[in-house]
Amino acid sequence: MNAAYEKILGGRSGLAGLLILGVLLLVIFPLGLDIFRLNLVGKYLSYAFVAVGLVLCWGYGGILSLGQGVFFGVGGYCMAMFLKLEASDPISTKIQSTPGIPDFMDWNQITSLPAMWQPFHSFSFTVLAVLAVPTLLALIIGMAMFKRRVGDVYFSIVTQAIAAILSILIIGQQGLTGGVNGITDLKTMMGWDIRTDSAKMILYFVNAGLLFACILFGRYILTSKLGRLLMAMRDKEERVRFSGYDVASFKVFVFCVAAMFSAIGGAMFTLQVGFMSPSFVGIVPSIEMVIYAAVGGRMSLLGAVYGTLLVNFGKTYFSETFPELWLFLMGGLFIAVVMYFPNGLAGVYEKQGKRLMAKLSRKKATPPEPVKPKAVAKTDSTDIHLDGANLEASK
């Protein structure tokens, strides 16, 4: 294997981790789950994009963002606007007062499509907006904060405030965003019905493929010089700054990458679930997304995916089995992870893996038992022959 590719894959252990996750997501889940449960897993994988981005900016960069729901929501709303316009063609909306516009606009007595919605008739523009708008927003936030050396807890508070503000703004602008209900009743994408079982299956595999692409891109960053700089900035920021590096620019970059990952997850969430609302933008979902990364291990890209799956599977199971107690059970799970597994699932895996390797190495290093010499019969006199000479030894 090429050395560069092997480095990105993380060596044999990293490649094994990717293969295990690939078999789980691409073989076991599709074959073992019905389409309803598989679509749920697809929804969970949409959240995993956010967790992977948090590993980059929080685990390695030391930037704890409590507002990643903002970028998740912006990406989701961009995709929802395109899908809603397709569902609001004049024929489908002929019973409205103003055909050809989304239903919630008609309810709010808007008589023409707002200018900000016009470009979303194009799928190409929508894909570009999903990637560019959240990244540009992260760039503005990052430049405003990091250039002024605002970090640590203050940055977390600001991002949390931005999440609250955006959520309130979306709810207040009901005529433009659908308000508290969000943008709903999304049926087709370029004429393709996304509600069918076959469409949900295809979207699941597309979602998983994009997630693997983000993981590999994240590993590429971490194995480059930038990855080493991120860890150095996290531990000794002033020393890195005195070495001549522009710390603020590196922080802005990794924050933008995390925002872009979150936006991709939001767009895929909208496609699989069929709606987007402000309930996925605010403070609570943003904090939950941090928990996904913490449970999986904030220093592991693969751990972030497993953490997301574990938390959401637990939430689904507890809410179905113990509807009155599930919030307490989930809270207990989070507390237990923080207390007993501070490095998350990845830390447990690494610790147990080291123990197993140590046991195997000890078994290999154990020397064989020495061979006992055979007993020699004792006699009164012995003839010893050396180089043809006969030497007689007498008692």
Tell me what you see in this structure:
The chain is mainly alpha-helical and 395 residues long. The protein has one domain. The protein has helices at residues 3-9, 11-32, 35-60, 68-87, 103-107, 123-146, 152-172, 174-177, 197-222, 225-235, 237-242, 247-273, 283-296, 301-321, 326-340, 344-365, and strands spanning 188-189, 192-193, 381-386, 389-394. A two-stranded antiparallel ribbon has the order 1-2. The longest helix is centred in the middle third of the chain and has 27 residues, at 247-273. The chain starts with a helix and ends with a strand. The relative contact order is 0.15.
**How many helices does DSSP assign?**
16
Count of β-strands: 4
Q: Could you say which overall geometry the principal axes of the C-alpha atoms support? A: globular
Order of helices and strands: HHHHHHHHEEHHHHHHHHEE
Radius of gyration: 30 Å
> Can you give the helix content as a percent range?
55-70%
Low-confidence stretches: 381-395
Task: Please give the domain count.
Answer: 1
How large is the share of residues in beta strands?
Answer: under 5%
Determine the structural class based on helices, strands and strand pairing.
mainly alpha
Average pLDDT works out at 86
Q: What summary fits the major beta sheet?
A: 2 strands, antiparallel
> What is the end-to-end distance?
71 Å
For the largest beta sheet, what order do the strands appear in spatially? 1-2
